[in-house]
Amino acid sequence: MTVTASTSEARSRPVQIWLVAWACALAAVLAVFLLQDRLPWAVNYPANAIVPVADWVSALMNLIKSNFSWLTRSITAALSVPLDFALNLLAKNFKIGRGADLIILPRLSWVGVCIVAFLAGRAAGGWKLGALVGGCFLYIALFGQWTSAMLTLGLISIAVPFCIVTGLFVGIWAWRKPWAERLLISPALDLMQTIPTFAYLIPMLLLFGNSPVSAMIATAIFATPPMVRATMLGLSRVPSEIDDFSEMAGCTARQKLWRVLLPSARPTLMVGVNQVIMLALNMVIIASMIGAGGLGYDVLLALRALKVGEAMEAGLAIVALAIALDRLSQAIARNHAQGHVYQEVSPSFWRRYPNLTLAIAILAATTLLGLFVPAFAAVPKAITFTTAPMWKTAVSWITINFFDTIEAFRVALILNVLNPVRAFCEGFPWLGAVFLLGLAGYQLGGLRLAALVAALTIFCAVTGLWEKTMATVYLCGISAFIACLIGIPIGLMASRSDRVEKVVTPVIDTLQVLPSFCFIIPVVMLFRVGDVTAMIATVAFAVVPAIRYTNHGLRQVPPALIEAAKVSGCTKRQTFLRVQLPLALPEIMLGVNQTILMALAMIIICAMVGTRDLGQEVFIALSKADSGRGIVAGLAIAFIGIVADRLFNAWTAKARARLG
């Protein structure tokens, strides 16, 4: 009894100390806010103390541009060769010679590409997948989006192999050199994944000009990190017995890597390939702003001109392409994970690769046929149709009949929720935010985490971006909160009912493959531009991790513990509240962390619809080609994401350790 009492007292003492510390910290911040007339520098960062980091970055970029223009021109020339080939093959025609000697070779026939898409799907996942993939490409053709979609696909077809090869070699290096992974690669990957996509475009635009090459390089930088992480994870998970066996067989280090370890890690590597494809597609859409063209450019032009129907059609074509590529790459990854690797050895190429041989033959035949039958070369306008007038009519009907309801909801949301939260965030003392976040970092991860969190927060203030930073925090925070408020209960219901899970899973899978552009279009139709539109689009984009991780966490609770609770006489409610929920809480909080990061990524895209935050700062910098302004704003956004990620990860690690 005495030992138990003293143990409980020892456990409660640190909790009491931290409660007192937080009470004192909050009281100090409140005092600073109330005394802001006497301590204005502690509430609003002094303008005369702003560090001109943006000017330094601009000067550095101009120095690089002026002294290394030969290098950027060489890179552009080298990369434009495969890129031009892919674009000519899929979307344009090959033009050889000039003037009277000009010879035009046709691009691949749309009929052949649709048939090959069907064959690829059938080979990877059967007739159903073949029908889905082929149907998506046929849909793109019949809706008149073929050329734009092929421009997008051409960029992806060059960017994705580059990302895979680069990510594979960097991942191998990181796996072999833990110090490099810890000191160089992990921080670089964190920055690459948290810096907003718009911020990638600015240095690319400055160094490589307004061209598809710039878009491809930006896409490669953004989409490479998943492959690096998948390579490190896959190699680290190879069983030690396989490693030992390869050494006993007399393999050299190179043979062991390429013939034993990498083939054993293939399932994880294929998951990384799938993620690279989806991120590349998302980035190529955004990169349309700096010369990539394609479907993203069509959406951008339609949104700027407020042509709702055209924007919706281009957005749906993006969705069709995303679903086709995602399902196809997932099926290939699944086949590798299950060991569906064909080992047939045959001297003839067509017997060893029958599907590939058939695809090449179909593409060649239909393309040659296109020289004589125009309907095979280009999609005939007679068989295409458009739903743009239908979308426009539908939006007009909703606007006319439900304008008062929509407007009342929008105004009520702005006046009663958004404006008060925004005023609170923007009026919060910068010094108080640094102090409270540092205290949270110290409690969760010690002095190192506290110093990191405080330093990243101070950066946002000393660069003169504090007000914009807090505007971003307000919109991202409220969007993530609502997404969790919706997603966690849905995930809870899915975990307790297989029938609900079967309904929810395809919905969240579809939401996950939709590029971020596509979430803005329908919301803009109804709510116009502004913070409400940004919030609703962000909630729809960020709700998926909250649902998925909640469902996964609750289903991962060991059945033995649930049975033990039932045997002990616990009701269903007690079993859930006292056993399942505490054990699933770390997983659920990981989902909350991912929801915040996805909300932050989407908020930046929403700068296109009139938000006034760091995303707008990056957007303005892009339009003015101001590299310093855009990169510093992008770093501020990245640092918000890193602070949230590190704090939530530290909390989750503590919770896991406490629960064993």
From TrEMBL:
> Which residues belong to any copy of the ABC transmembrane type-1 domain?
149-329, 469-648
Could you identify this protein by its name? ABC transporter permease
* CDD domains xrefs: TM_PBP2 (cd06261)
Q: What is its main location?
A: membrane
Q: Which InterPro entries match?
A: MetI-like, MetI-like_sf
Task: Please list every transmembrane segment annotated in the UniProt record, as residue ranges.
Answer: 15-35, 70-90, 102-120, 126-144, 151-175, 195-223, 276-297, 356-379, 391-415, 421-442, 449-466, 472-494, 506-526, 588-610, 630-648
Q: Which UniProt keywords apply?
A: Cell membrane, Membrane, Transmembrane, Transmembrane helix, Transport
Subcellular location, record wording: Cell membrane
The species this protein belongs to is Mesorhizobium delmotii
Q: Alphabetically, which GO biological process terms does the record hold? A: choline transport; glycine betaine transport
Q: Output the Gene Ontology cellular-component terms.
A: ATP-binding cassette (ABC) transporter complex
Membrane topology, as annotated, equals:
Multi-pass membrane protein
Family, according to the entry, reads as follows: Belongs to the binding-protein-dependent transport system permease family.
A GO molecular function annotation here is: amine transmembrane transporter activity
Q: Which domain of life is it from?
A: Bacteria
